[in-house]
Structures are given as structure tokens and as C-alpha cells.
Fold this sequence. Notes:
Layout: E1 5-9, H1 13-25, E2 29-34, E3 48-50, H2 53-58, E4 63-66, H3 70-82, E5 87-89, H4 98-111, E6 115-117, H5 125-132, E7 136-145, H6 155-158, E8 168-174, H7 175-181, H8 187-195, E9 203-208, E10 215-223, E11 226-234, E12 236-237, E13 240-244, H9 245-258
Parallel strand pairs: 1-2, 1-4, 2-3, 4-5, 5-6, 7-9
Antiparallel strand pairs: 7-10, 8-9, 10-11, 12-13
GO molecular function, one term: NAD binding
Pathway: Cofactor biosynthesis; NAD(+) biosynthesis; iminoaspartate from L-aspartate (dehydrogenase route): step 1/1
GO biological process, one term: NAD+ biosynthetic process
Amino acid sequence: MHHPSIAAIGFGAMARSLQKSLEQHGDVTLSACLVPEAFRASVPDTITAYTSVEDLIAAKPDLVVECATHDAVRESVPPILRAGIDVIIVSIGALADRDLRETLQDAAHSGGSRVSVVSGAIGGLDVLRAGALAGLEEVTYVGRKPPRAWAGTPAETLLNLSALTEPTEFYEGSATQAAHDYPKNTNVTAAVALAGVGFDDTRVKLIADPTAQTNSHELEARGAFGRFRIVLENNALPENPKTSWLAALSVEQAVLRHFNSMEV
Ligand SMILES: NC(=O)C1=CN([C@@H]2O[C@H](COP(=O)(O)OP(=O)(O)OC[C@H]3O[C@@H](n4cnc5c(N)ncnc54)[C@H](OP(=O)(O)O)[C@@H]3O)[C@@H](O)[C@H]2O)C=CC1
Ligand SMILES: O=C([O-])CC(=O)C(=O)O
């Protein structure tokens, strides 16, 4: 049987966690990645590090998983799809851009490939998708993370993160604006928006909480189907406090499912 070999775009906290976890599982190998030139030296010898998308395509991976940035989705994913290689996207916030969504669909169509997004650090997207068919009246997402997870974001200019003593909300608005302002922390809101009522109508609240030990995601929806509320309390990846471990596990699950002929 063919042993699938996949490639990652990016080789940060999530791709590393995915690679180790797949190695333990044994059925699929993450054997290559596409990284910026400056990052190449930090990729272990067992992984082939490409710095051009053309070289990655020439290596013909069975599947590519994007675990990098919104820019990587914009720049690298369309040519890979056009080359006939399926792609799983994790930096879903990039899809707040309608033109990019069309570009990706066109690229997949012309290459006869498939592009999909992961559920990532959140759950309940199946409920939203089903509920949306009968109409959703309201979808609200509340993201709560420890202050260190908001470092390097506009929250830093709105709050004194290191001096916070109580949970503080610093953003309330649409998923469109959240994806733009907090690209490394609101990919989950993009997944919620795509499954439910779209980017402009998905309400988002973001909280820096000095008492929080986890990255928590609260999702509430109301519609013709009824009501729904879930709360996830995710442990962060040790290498990146912004990213939940569950997000990496959800990529692994999507990869294994991709190569399974029976979807259960
Ligand atoms: N859907 C979801 O639920 C979730 C999605 N995410 C998203 O997943 C992605 C990966 O997360 P994580 O691994 O924690 O992030 P990291 O920052 O740890 O890793 C991202 C890596 O991608 C590299 N990179 C940057 N630009 C490019 C590019 N154009 N092409 C290839 N590589 C590039 C970075 O290199 P350098 O350091 O040199 O810039 C870095 O090594 C992020 O976009 C994150 O926001 C995260 C959590 C949940
Ligand atoms: O991993 C998480 O908890 C969520 C996250 O960063 C994102 O949605 O981008």
C-alpha cells in the first residue's frame, strides 16, 4: 500500500506538533515543508525544507497542510491547488477576503484538486452548518486567553497586558474586522463565520484574562433549529501560547481522514 507523504507550509509550533504526532501514529509521514529562507536552518534534517513553492510542487506531496500565516494562504496555496495537489488550510482567517475565496475555488477547479479548512481549535461547526440551512438569527463567539497570548497584537496598545488584574474585554465587532486585526488569534472565528452566518454577521468578543489557564472559546447560536452553546477550554501548545493543542490535533485528524476511504 502507498504510504502517504505530506508537506506543511510553515514549520512552527503547529507543524512541529503535527509531525511528531503523525510519526507516532505511523500511517502518514510529514516529510517536507515550505518555509521562508531565514527559517530553513531551524528545520530538522529529517524534513526536506523548500523555500520556493515550485520546488515543493515538483516534489509531488500527496497532500499539503498550510500551517503558516494568512499571507502564505494568499501566496502559496493557489499554485499548489492549480498543480493538482489537495490543500488543508489552518490560517482560515485569510478567507475573510472574498476575492481570495474565489481565487482558491478557481485554482482547485482548474487543478482538479480540493481545498478544505479544519475545525481547528473550535467545535460545533457541524451544528452551525446544519442550523444555517433553516436560518440562523444570531451567532456569537467569545475568545478568552491569558494576556501573554495577546502579545504582539493590537490588544497591546489598548491594554497594559502585563499589569492586568481582572478579565478585560478589548474587542467587540465583526469576524471580518477580527480576522484583519488579530490574524493569529481569530482563525476560529473565521471557521465559525464560514459555517454559519458569514464574516460580517458573526459577532466576536475578545478577552484578555489573567486568571485563565486555557485558551477558551465560547460559541452561541440561535435560529429556527433552536439554541446551541458550547465552551471549549483548550490547553495551549508549549511552543506557542496563542495556539491551542486541539488545533494541531484537528489538523492531524483531517489528514488521517483525508487518506481514509471510509469517512466515519
Ligand atoms: N484554525 C485554527 O483553529 C487555528 C489556526 N492557527 C493558525 O495556524 C497557523 C500556524 O500556527 P502556529 O504553528 O502556532 O504558528 P507559528 O508562528 O508557531 O508558526 C508559523 C510558521 O510559519 C512560518 N511562515 C511565515 N510566513 C510564511 C510563509 N509565507 N510561508 C511559509 N512559512 C511561513 C513562520 O516563520 P517565521 O517565524 O520565520 O515568520 C513560522 O515558523 C497560524 O496562522 C495560526 O494563526 C492557530 C491556532 C488555531
Ligand atoms: O488556537 C486557538 O486557541 C485559536 C487561535 O489561535 C486562532 O483561532 O487563531
